Model the fold of this input.
Amino acid sequence: MLSKQLQIPLISLGKVFKNPTPELETLCHKAERENQWFSQDQIKYALTAWSLLLTEENLSKWMDKYSYSGKSFSQKRIGLIMAGNIPLVGFHDLISILLSGHNALVKLSADDSVLMQFCIDFLLKNGFSENAITVVNRLENFDAVIATGSNNTNRYFDYYFAKVPNLLRKNRTSVAVLTGKETKEQLTGLGEDIFRYYGLGCRNVAKLFVPKGYNPATFFEAIFDYGYLIEHNKYMNNHDYYRAIYLLNQEPFLDNNFVILKEEKQLHSPISIVYYEEYEHLEEVAIQINQIRNELQCVVGQTGKIEGEIPFGTTQQPALWDYADGVDTIEFLMAV
Done:
């Protein structure tokens, strides 16, 4: 259980991510053909991020936090329903199951089947037993389940998996709190938080809290370099669609030709749109954020007033022990 031996194939995979083999490079292009949101630069970013995580130091630091303290262990079959919104988004759950000593029954997302299948094949060929991971079309005969989906899908999950231990994840999003004193470098980092993976991840900032009278030109100037987004057809189709809708409905908005700022109370903004909400006192924002914590993945800012806020430009750099929804996946698996 939590064996160091199980870490070896993961470390080897991390090295392949760092220096992709011709096979992996070919599959990266295939992944883009099957899902146009998976552009080569976004895939490369994901592979590089994972290569930095899958090291002996990081894996040991992560696993050394856990101990069974003599508790007996029974290997279980853990159903895993993966999302596919960003490259390798389900990989953390998979390796959590494997490092916990359980076997994974994996229902791949059609949007991220190519890269995930490569990872699974690699791990099975380089140290994990053939029973450790089974790719299935339908989950059956499982002892527990981890599933990620939309809020609508989650209603089905709640019903279908009610009789087994489950870890079910719904839609979440991220926000940033600005004071108006941010440097250009910080706001450029915020652009990374917003635009990485085209804004499709739960760790992407979809809404800004800004002080009353905030000048958006400062923000627009700092994110100028993200103008490359206009080259992505699916992204710009979203931008042009919502721009037309807002114009038709005579709704006020601000636009720099690749992202629209719109004042809105809601949290979840469409792709290419960033909502914003003005505030008068930071204390009010802190209270509001605490009330909606169960809808948030990350809170970006350096106000010193918001609990759990993280620096600008870091939302897409989680550590292995930064769990989705704040729920410790390993602890869940140890209790199954």
About this structure: DSSP finds twelve helices and eleven strands in the chain. The chain has a mean pLDDT of 95.
